[in-house]
Amino acid sequence: MAEISFPEPRIGPEWTRRRIGAFRDAAAFERFAAVYREAMDGLPEPDEQRTVDTSYGAVRVYRFGTGDGVPLVLMPGRQSCTPLWRTNLPGLMRSGAPCTPSTASGSRAAAHSRRR
């Protein structure tokens, strides 16, 4: 599996006051990162990783597949992330469309961006 990196994590109580998801402390983020990396090991290798800046902060996006079709953007619901698509990704990739799942915060940020 490719090295999975993360945008700068939001750690500490100052994020709670801003009503933005955050980790209580660095140890909480490290626990999350370990489980996330393990879950990503169950997915096909991403062909590309990008960080997208949004009004909610940086969001990680992965591209699976390099087909010529129109990209299919998959957005997991609130409080979930890219590994949610583990069961669906292989079949979607066979369709020829590159699939681009975003992180959970990405789905919230994308929905927010569309409302502007």
Tally of individual helices: 4
Shape category: elongated
**Strand residue content:** 15-25%
Number of strands: 4
Task: Kindly provide the radius of gyration, computed on alpha-carbon positions and rounded to a whole number of angstroms.
Answer: 15 Å
Quaternary structure state of the chains depicted: single chain
Poorly predicted parts: 104-116
Main sheet strand line-up: 1-2
Helix content: 25-40%
Give the H and E element order: HHEEEHEH
* Major sheet: 2 strands, antiparallel
Q: Termini separation (Å)? A: 37 Å
Which structural class is indicated by helix and strand composition?
alpha+beta
User: If you average the pLDDT, what whole number results?
Assistant: 77
Can you summarize this structure?
The chain has helices at residues 13-17, 26-40, 89-94, 104-114; strands at 48-54, 57-63, 72-74, 99-101. With 116 residues, it is of the alpha+beta class. The strands form two sheets. A two-stranded antiparallel ribbon has the order 1-2.
Describe this structure in words.
With 116 residues, this protein is an alpha+beta fold. The strands form 2 sheets. Strands 1-2 form a two-stranded antiparallel ribbon. Strands 3-4 form a two-stranded parallel sheet. The longest helix has 15 residues, at 26-40. It is built from 4 helices and 4 strands; from the N terminus they run ααβββαβα.
